[in-house]
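Final report, results section. Input specification for complex C-07:
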Amino acid sequence: MKLLYIQASPNKEKSSSRQVANYLVSKLNVASSKILDLEAHPLPHINSMAISAFFTPPETHSPEQKVAIKLSDEKVDELLSSDIVVISTPMWNFGVPSVLKAWFDHISRAGKTFKYTSEGLKGLLEGKKVFVVVSSGSVFSEGPFASMDQLGPWIRTTFNFLGVSDLEIIRVEGTNTFEAAATAIAKAKARVDQLVLNQTLKEESHA
Ligand SMILES: Cc1cc2nc3c(=O)[nH]c(=O)nc-3n(C[C@H](O)[C@H](O)[C@H](O)COP(=O)(O)O)c2cc1C
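Structure output:
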């Protein structure tokens, strides 16, 4: 099993989403892992040259288009060659931080991660397992803020579109609130333990 681990928080080791995702990664049984730290290596926004390269055959690419598409090709290859994807991210303004949105813009590629068929659009990432660890200042799993969560539904829709149906969201929530902050990380780690146990049982039943 190959793991791709994407880190979107700029808070490095202090990041609560990274702390819980690191815990998750330490429990996963993988042969190799690739870490993509978006604070250390942010991706540029997709520009007009990259878009023109996406929609023209590689053999006709100009030198400028070749440069513009190189990073996207690299990120797509990293994703396609992985079996498990772990994303750790804070919630920013009810959604994902723009560094993570940029990653999605680079990997959502017609002909590579989804395709047009006579039956409509088809995602090409089937069979991958995705874990998303989301840290947020407020609580979104229940209560008055629940309907304001644009991150969970967006990330699930986007991965579903790309063919991923096996996706778990782990919330580290209420980090800015008096009541929930003290237990947010412990609760999220307990959820990780449960998910890892379920995954192990599933693998054993298929063995
Ligand atoms: C620019 C910015 C925007 C934020 N927007 C939200 C938000 O919309 N909702 C929320 O609950 N918390 C918001 N927060 C708080 C973070 O989500 C929270 O502190 C989170 O625990 C940070 O995760 P990290 O430690 O992994 O970086 C925001 C923080 C920053 C810096």
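The helical segments are 16-27, 48-54, 63-80, 98-107, 151-161, 181-206. The first helix runs from residue 16 to 27. This concludes the modelling results for the funded period.
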